[in-house]
Sequence to fold (236 residues):
Amino acid sequence: METNAAAPPLRGTHDGWHRLPLASLDFETTGVDPRTDRILSYALIDGPVAVSGLVDAGVPIPPASAEVHGLTAAMLTGEPTPSRVLAGILEWVESLIDRGVGLVVFNAAYDLTMLRAEARRNGLREPDWSRLLVVDPYVVDWGIARGSLGRRRLVDVAAYYGVPIESAHDAMCDARAARDVAVELGARHPHVGSLALGELMVQQRRWFADRVAEWNSYARTSGRPVDDPTGWPLAA
Fold:
């Protein structure tokens, strides 16, 4: 396993999920709580098709969030409402499940939990989440390096693997970068890339649980809230 490396390993010639068509999803939101915050913009990539848009969530946007992604209430006024947008996104996720296409989501426990919360808030039909094949570069990167490479936001992991991000915190740019990072992870780490997507799901759950166990050990000694080790790819 390549940890503490000055540079990532070279791409291999092995086959695997990284050579399959992969979809990607990203949201920009009002905040950091996936259960209560709201989706403001979205990007969906499915093969050569890329769709993005804005959402008029009808709620205030905290200045700290607007500073990150640049979206303001004035910019979103008159855009489609959540129920109109989310119905299409949920149908698209269902189609990925039916086709067996892997969905790349950086920090899936946030974005997918938020999508589920929005679906329930708006009374929309949910896909069968248990059948969704997720590739989470945030979790995979941690599993490979075991947290030894320092801060690993999308911009950090992308820079490490030589993946450009034209505009960080733009949903489409982030969705493209996440998918490209996922491909690099699979191509450069054969023990990960050679797994079937179903096997990768199992491994990602283990890595997530390990990462949470490390965090919880620290949290208990510092008075911080602990996380749920089973909360991937959706929080309980």
Q: What stands out?
A: The longest helix spans residues 197-222.
